Amino acid sequence: MALIEDSLYRKIKKQVGKAIGDFNLIEEGDRIAIGVSGGKDSYTLLHILESLRRRAPVKYELVAVNVDAGYPGYRTSVIEEHLREHGFTHRMETTNCYQIIEEKRRPGSSYCSFCARLRRGVLYSLAEELGCNKIALGHHLDDFIETLLLNQFYVGTLAAMSPRLKADNGKHTVIRPLVYVEEQDIIAFTRQNRFPVVCCACPVCGVVDQKRKRMKKLVRELSQENPQLRRSMIGAIANVHPRHLMDPRLGEF
Ligand SMILES: Nc1ncnc2c1ncn2[C@@H]1O[C@H](COP(=O)(O)OP(=O)(O)OP(=O)(O)O)[C@@H](O)[C@H]1O
Question: The tRNA(Ile)-lysidine/2-thiocytidine synthase N-terminal domain covers which part of the protein (predicted)?
């Protein structure tokens, strides 16, 4: 089934194109592994990057990569069928992450962050094996600004995410082309195109972290008074004034 190419599609495509240009996310000859979880964000990322690729002046390749952490009930066959149906080059990887999490996770520590760390390791290895120099993830504008707030409120650091980051192993570059796309548009786009969303089936699947949930609520409420709030916050991350901060590492006092 072809994508519905309406104004929402054009809006998201334009925002992704702008992010690619602003942060030099895609270059000639790139081979990009796209992490596809079966969630709304990564399906949107995959389809938009593919639409852009077809008409792009630079040549790049996409490989959809799914990591099955091994939770019973994770319906990877639904994801694979979708990838096949749309003709995406893909790789489905089964792992024993679930078992490792059960054995190694410290009681009380976050399930999701441990799982994400293991998954990232698998994604890096797969990217290497598949000859991909970049890894694209489906984090969107709301993820960026919620992380900014979470770090300020609960961690005591001024940090969000980067749309383009050299991976810890120094070999790959992680890119986040949905940085300018709002979550509500991704939800609408996913519904409109009937992407077959599946959940990861982990023990905390679908339970949004309470702190993140509060940040979402705060942003939603403030946005009702100021519809530009999200844009202002994402703009702030790209408009830093070190002289008006107080980190001694940024300059002498
Ligand atoms: N099982 C997986 N296999 C491959 N990539 C994954 C997997 N899980 C997550 N990712 C990648 O990491 C990104 C961030 O993961 P996270 O768990 O925060 O999911 P999310 O924000 O709910 O996104 P999505 O809607 O795509 O699941 C995803 O958008 C996707 O690109």
Answer: 32-195
Q: What is the CATH T-level fold of the domain 7-246, as seen in this structure? A: Rossmann fold (3.40.50)
State pLDDT tens for residues 41-80.
999 999 999 999 999 999 999 999 999 999 989 999 999 9
Angle at 35 between CA 74 and CA 12, to 5 degrees: 110
According to DSSP, the β-strands at 90-94 and 61-68 are parallel
CB 150, CB 212: distance < 8 Å: yes
Domain definitions of the chain by residue range: 7-246
Smallest CA separation from ligand 1 atom 7, residue: 37
User: Quick one: which atom of ligand 1 is closest to the CA of 69?
Assistant: 1
From 119, 112, 63, 75, select the one nearest 96 (Cα to Cα): 119
- Maximum Cα interatomic distance, the chain, rounded to a whole number of Å: 60
Q: Whose CA is nearest to atom 9 of ligand 1?
A: 37
Q: Which two tokens stand for residue 158?
A: 């001024």
What is the per-residue pLDDT across 57-66, written as a single tens digit (0 to 9) for each?
999 999 999 9
- Residue 193: both structure tokens together: 């195109």
Minimum CA distance residue for ligand 1 atom 11: 35
Q: Could you list the beta-strand ranges (E) of 6-139.
A: 31-35, 61-68, 90-94, 134-136
Interatomic CA distance for residues 224 and 40, integer angstroms: 24
Question: For 6, phi and psi rounded to 5 degrees?
Answer: -100, -165
Q: Report the phi/psi class of residue 24: left, alpha or beta, with left for phi > 0 and alpha for psi in -120 to 50.
A: left
